Amino acid sequence: PLGQSVLNGQCTSCGSTCGTCSFNISLTSNVTTCTSCMGNTYLFAGSCVSSCPSGTTVNNGVCETCSSGCTSCAYSSALGRVTCLNCDINQGVILVDGVCVTGCPIWTYYD
Description:
Layout: E1 4-7, E2 10-13, E3 18-25, E4 30-37, E5 42-44, E6 47-49, E7 56-59, E8 62-65, E9 70-76, E10 81-87, E11 94-96, E12 99-101
């Protein structure tokens, strides 16, 4: 059932927000890793979070990391990919068509 996974041959609860999960059992600890989330939560680093952290954006229920040099991004359904909204000027990159680049494309200049 949703919210449960098999552990030692029995259905075991994944936790309050996991839709599906996996278990990593060792002699010293039992770790539950979410593989999907329920409700208004998003998958980030094996846990379900209420909002994606800075430097990530939601894509199909998963917090996806922005590209290098990008300080904020968003998923574009029209383009079918994550696009950058702002670049880190301290890294010497500028925003061109949703991507942070180190220089202007040919026949263009920085304004």
